[in-house]
Amino acid sequence: MTSLTALSIASEIFPLIKTGGLADVTGALPTALKPHGIAMRTLIPGYPAVLGGIENPQPVHSFTDLFGSSARLLSARCEELELLVLDAPHLYVRPGNPYVGPDAKDWPDNAFRFAALAQVGARIGQGLLPGFVPDVLHAHDWQAGLLPAYLRYSDRPGPKSVFTIHNLAYQGRFERDLLAPLGLPERAFSLDGVEYWGGIGFLKAGLQLADRITTVSPTYAQEIQNSEAGMGLEGLLRLRADCLSGILNGVDTKVWDPAADELITATYDLETIGARARNKQALQTRFGLKTDPGALLLGVVSRLSWQKGLDILLEVLPGLLAEGTQLALLGSGDAPLEEGFRAAALAHPGQVGAVIGYDEALAHQIQAGADVLLVPSRFEPCGLTQLCALRYGAVPVVARVGGLADTVVDANQMAIATGVATGVQFSPVTAEMLAAALTKTRALYADHTTWRNLQINGMTTDVSWKNPAQHYAKLYRELVDT
To answer: How far apart are CA 414 and CA 335, in angstroms?
Structure first.
């Protein structure tokens, strides 16, 4: 098997900087590709958290002027990850979230912050570092969307590029007058270039100009070619359908392993699944819920947004509580939803608990202790939380969209009879259908044997990166061979 080198270009990576599933993917993929002869390094911005978490940083290149000031490229490690860190303090050394400032608004220079990432990635592909010339460049989401443009409009040869959409809703749109300041020629501002509705579209540029496009589930790859989920880009995606494929995400099964997870109260496996009861009790205590082993306990680990469908959970909550259901929610996001769940917790102590924010350890405890992991998303490119739920024996109840449809086998009569069911799906995403799905879930929960079979089926499902990594390795090799 011929070995290949690849450079991943991303705005976040676990365990250094994470706001969502993108970081989990970029953090797990390099290790998963190693058995397939792919040596991957990752180019990441030098945020304070990144600079503080890397090991043995070594300068490998200096820039006298990278969009306004000098910068360095550092070679470094973090655990098993091989990194290239763009150390540009004028762009990245800022507090808090990597995308928005303390006022909860986008940093006003985000166009330059992430154009720098893409431009440096393209230059590495074109031989900036003689000791590392990757065979393939793999750019992720709008923050790296200009990379194929910098390759296309350069007079220097470069490698083939893959562009992965993790969420089409975030597009990186900026004013047309930034074209020259971003280092792009006038000819780039065209329908078959970076132009998008009279401005510059970072995501659109990636979709238009990359050699191959992937997204994170087969169903989402089909959905985004239609107006309902295409976010205005469905026409372009249909035109490039031959270059578009859906590859499911996986989860890091070392990080997410109920048999060895130090973040949960009691570890367990298939043989000791009864120990989940201790995690349920600990979860109820942590959220101020009544300690009741028989209560159906719903867990939610999510960004609080319209996309995630959590407004309809608030709608159906009174009916659920009347049946004795409990809710443990961890998340943050839109202020009305945050306030709605805070108010529900205050109004229903012992039945509803809400932690507004994010806590990695608590996310693990919810997966290990909740009976159900609820994901009522209106659209979901892949979703990772339901994959973790399967591995931890929390039965996922999900909307039949995107990667949720691809990864959860609905507990219909035939699936139960043939022993393949792993959870509950519902569609369309309405309060009425969510309530019906949870009524069905309560009936399944009352049947101890069926419920235990759902848990076991989930825990034996392969949610690792093994199969996705095979698909990515095959894609890289096809590109290099063309």
So the answer is: 42
Q: Which residues contact 121 (CB under 8 A, 6 or more apart)?
A: 7, 9, 43, 137, 139, 144, 147, 150
Residues of the chain with pLDDT under 70: 1
Quote the pLDDT of residue 1.
Answer: 65
The confidence score (pLDDT) of residue 369 equals 98
CA 217, 167, 463, 326: dihedral to nearest 10 degrees?
A: -120
Annotation: binding site: 18
- Measured over the CA atoms of residue 254, residue 255, residue 256 and residue 259, the dihedral's sign is positive
Q: Do 311 and 337 form a contact (C-beta atoms < 8 A)?
A: yes
Say whether 138 sits in a helix, a strand or coil. Answer: strand
Residue 429, φ and ψ in degrees, nearest 5: -85, 85
β-pair type (395-399, 71-78): unpaired
pLDDT of residue 2: 72
Compute the distance between CA of residue 63 and CA of residue 72 in angstroms, rounded to an integer.
6
| Amino acid identity at 429 | V
- On whether the CB atoms of residues 438 and 397 are closer than 8 A, the answer is yes
- β-pair partners for 138: 8, 162
Q: Are 393 and 459 in contact (CB under 8 A)?
A: yes
Question: What pLDDT, in 10s, does the model give residues 2-29?
Answer: 799 999 999 999 999 998 889 999 999 9
* CATH 3.40.50.2000 placement within the chain: 4-250+466-481, 270-459
331: Cβ contacts below 8 Å, ≥ 6 apart = 300, 301, 302, 303, 304, 310, 356, 357, 358
Residue carrying structure tokens 């839109």: 334
- Cα distance between residue 225 and residue 233, in whole Å: 8
Q: Which pLDDT belongs to residue 438?
A: 98
Fold type of domain 270-459: Rossmann fold (3.40.50)
Residues at the binding site for ADP-alpha-D-glucose are 18
Q: Residue 146: phi, psi to the nearest 5?
A: -80, -10
DSSP classification of residue 309:
T
Of 232, 220, 114, 212, residue with least CA distance to 167: 220
CATH class of 4-250+466-481: alpha beta
**Quick count: other Cβ atoms within 10 Å of Cβ 381?**
27
Q: Are 455 and 273 in contact (CB under 8 A)?
A: yes
Which neighbouring-strand residues pair with 4? Answer: 38
Number of C-beta neighbours around residue 323 at 10 A: 11
Cα 420 from Cα 62, distance rounded (Å):
55
CA pair distance 258, 272, nearest whole angstrom: 10
User: Residue 319 — φ and ψ, nearest 5°?
Assistant: -65, -40
